[in-house]
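<given_protein>
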Amino acid sequence: MSVTDVFSKLCSLEAIGFIAGEYYLLETTVTDEFGNPSDLSSTQQRRISLAYFGINDELFHVDCDASYGTNFSVFSGEIGTLTSSLVPGKLIYQISIVDAESKLFNLGQGRITLLSKIA
């Protein structure tokens, strides 16, 4: 197994890109191992954390909302405007929940390409 294979399994969420400081609503559908929508209604906390790629220190996190329907469970948080003071580059985002029993679960990670705004 190569490093690329390991990275793609760990970074299971969508790779995204946006301009630093611009509005960006990150949404993802949360499913179980069989592809069925997960019910997040009993979770105590839902959040998206951001860090620079290769550095484990969290830059900030955003508490998130969850929407439910028959065929979906969408996890969303507005992260764009909070990035205005960050140096453009590669970041990672991690989605996590704290369940009703106070257990932390990291649902996945993805990559962000943060671009600079052209003046």
Remarks:
- Helices lie at 3-10.
- The chain has one domain: 3-115.
- The chain has a mean pLDDT of 81.
